[in-house]
Amino acid sequence: MIAENVNNIRESITAACIAARRSPESVRLIAVSKAFGHDVIAEVVRAGVFDIGENYVQEIVEKRERLHDERIRWHFIGHLQSNKVKYVAEWIHLVHSVDSLSVAAELERRGAKIGRALDVLVEVNTSGEASKFGVDPGNAAEFVGAVSRFPHVRVRGLMTIGPFLPDPEESRPAFRALKGIFDGIKKGGIGREPMEHLSMGMTHDFRVAIEEGSTMVRIGTAIFGPRKES
Ligand SMILES: *Cc1c(COP(=O)(O)O)cnc(C)c1O
Fold it and tell me: Which residues line ligand 1 (CB under 6 A)?
């Protein structure tokens, strides 16, 4: 069933890319496995998905230890606290959710220690919902500039979570705003590295996200099925 779900979502992503006149290779599928076990992740990997996203430090550490698969690129997409950075810094592929200088400073410290720059995205709160993490859209460019002064932290792009509303069209303004901020940062030459990633779009709104320029969609439910309430 997992393999079939993966094939279906892949086809939907490809169709959305073609409809938006974009190359299907320009959008990466990240399987969000929070609340599901390592055995199910192994099935996704067998189906050829090597980008795995997790929200909680304890879960990502445990599952990685269980899986022992060097092909997996682990993405941290939840809220990261500075005191937890040390558990993931050595092997995390991309942290999607940097929104404070204290976390950036801790990533810098760990990156310097292992002698390698850590790749991150800056999370922007585009919907203005108080329950969401992320920097304010108005401060995003300045924040990217500030994080880019850390030599061992590379800002590779931006991430946002659309509003939790059933109609995917309700997410469009948030996604369009993120793309606007992204283009502004690139045009302004802010940051040291080329910004290339826009992490936006989940199971219910990934089509709209692709229309608005997403390069990474974070898909949980469409692959793993509904999560049990925790
Ligand atoms: C859970 C989660 C997802 C996946 O959501 P689905 O609606 O199940 O696809 C994506 N991004 C973040 C940040 C999440 O917490």
Answer: 32, 34, 55, 77, 161, 202-204, 218-221
